[in-house]
Amino acid sequence: MSTPKKVGVTGATGQVGSRLLKHLHAAGIPAVAVVRNALGAALCHAEIPECEIRIGSLTPAAGEPHVLDDCDVIVNCALEGSGGIPRQAYTRNRALVDGLLKAKSLQWLVHFSTVAVYGELITAAADPERERRHPHPHSEYGRSKLFVERYAAAQAQKRGVTCTVVRLGHVYGAGIARSREIIEFARDPKFRLPFDGKLLSNAIHVDAVGAGIVELLRGRPAADVVSLAESTHTWRDIFDWHTAALGLAPVAPMDDAASKAQRRGWTDRSPVRDVMNWVRGLPIKSLVRSPSMFDLALQVLVRTPESVTKLASDINRRSGAGAHIARAVAADSVTIPSLYLSDGMPGPFLTLPEPSSSGMGSAPERARELADWADLWTTPRWRAAAA
Questions:
Q1: Three-state secondary structure call for residue 361
Q2: Domain of residue 195, CATH code
Q3: What's residue 178's pLDDT?
Q4: Residue 58 has what DSSP assignment?
Q5: Using one digit for the tens of pLDDT, what is the confidence trace for 137-181?
Q6: pLDDT-based confidence at residue 286 (cuts at 50, 70, 90)
Q7: Global pTM?
Q8: 377 pLDDT exceeds 90?
Q9: DSSP H or E segment with residue 166
């Protein structure tokens, strides 16, 4: 396929979508950012002043023109939320996909999914191709994302539109929550990097996301489902990049025995096991804190009529129960998040070009942006103002 005539980008005010638009503009690919209102347009213009911005609905009513009718390619970085009712996420994301496929000139839909479809803790698959085709997510988030990507592929086929599902790895870089977590770990003297960081990271810098999608749009992938991550980078590579950019000492390693124990803490989790542990040591908040039981509750809510879950949500808001549950879950979170203990996700992976030597996306610019951003959120405002 030749270079697209015009690319529509949804989720344009998000961290990935906004960066992607910058890379499309730099590559000379005409792009349109879609936002919902004037505030979104202002935010998008402040970030990418040279970009064409349109305000409109991605789910137009029958007979109404689509805001992206003149785009032959749409990159869907948007994700509809549940509004506090998990079941709504399925309904809203189906509607979003149906709406995108109404665009008259659309020939190719690039739909962003996530590494989470492979589960919270990824273990090496005996048959990577089968795992790619039939992943087994362990969380409601992963299940909902897998559902939407399959729905998008099926509906695109009916419409005669090519669909490429891009399973995005853990994004890092300036302004990204993952980088903030890594920096906080690096500054914690008690933190140890599992397996000395030898595991593949499944991570990708936000600029590499933009560069990878540009390469995708200039060609055509061999598979309908592809992974987008820096496939050879380990967690040691990622942590060392952060610490070097900030002038911090490299994080200390965790030995293999302790690392395996951390991993078993995830692989041994199950609702039954958590119930038994709770029974041995009441009170009830111990059960609420369990990640697997919390996910089981989400599964139940997804299958519960909206009228019931809305009523429960309203009661929680009035009573403050939701805040108590959130604090309970956070208070008992696992010491090492599962992604730092996971094996690499299956490919094939999108081709990532080498970063340029200067300018946007270059190694010096990435490091500078990270250092400036880290300094911004770690320096108290009164000190910054005084300086």
A1: coil
A2: 3.40.50.720
A3: 96
A4: S
A5: 988 889 989 999 999 999 999 999 999 999 999 999 999 999 999
A6: very low
A7: 0.81
A8: no
A9: strand 162-168
Quick one: 60 and 182 in the same domain? Answer: yes
pLDDT at position 201 = 97
**Residue 58: inside a domain:** yes
Distance, first Cα to last Cα, the chain: 53
Enclosing domain of residue 20: 7-246+340-375
- Side chain identity at residue 56, one-letter code: G
| Residue 383 maps to a domain | no
Q: Which residue, chain included where needed, has tokens 């952060």?
A: 242
Same domain, 224 and 94: yes
Within a domain: residue 35?
yes
Whether the predicted pLDDT of 312 surpasses 50: yes
Instruction: Kindly state whether residues 194 and 239 are assigned to the same domain.
Output: yes
Give me the number of domains the chain comprises: 2
Mark residue 84 as left, alpha or beta (left: phi above 0; alpha: psi -120 to 50; beta: remaining): left
Do 27 and 161 lie in a common domain? yes
pLDDT above 60 (res 382): no
> 120: which residues sit within 8 A by CB, 6+ positions away?
138, 139, 142, 266, 338
Angstrom distance (rounded) from CA 238 to CA 230: 10
Q: Taking a C-beta distance cutoff of 8 angstroms, is the pair 179, 242 a contact?
A: yes
Same domain, 53 and 104: yes
Q: What is the CA radius of gyration of the chain?
A: 22
Q: Where are the alpha helices (DSSP H) in the chain?
A: 15-26, 38-47, 86-100, 128-133, 140-159, 177-186, 206-218, 235-246, 256-267, 271-280, 285-289, 291-302, 306-319, 321-331, 363-378, 381-386
Average pLDDT, the chain: 84
| Share above pLDDT 70 across residues of the chain, in percent, rounded to a whole number | 78
Contacts of 173 (CB under 8 A, 6+ apart): 179, 205, 206, 207, 366, 369, 370
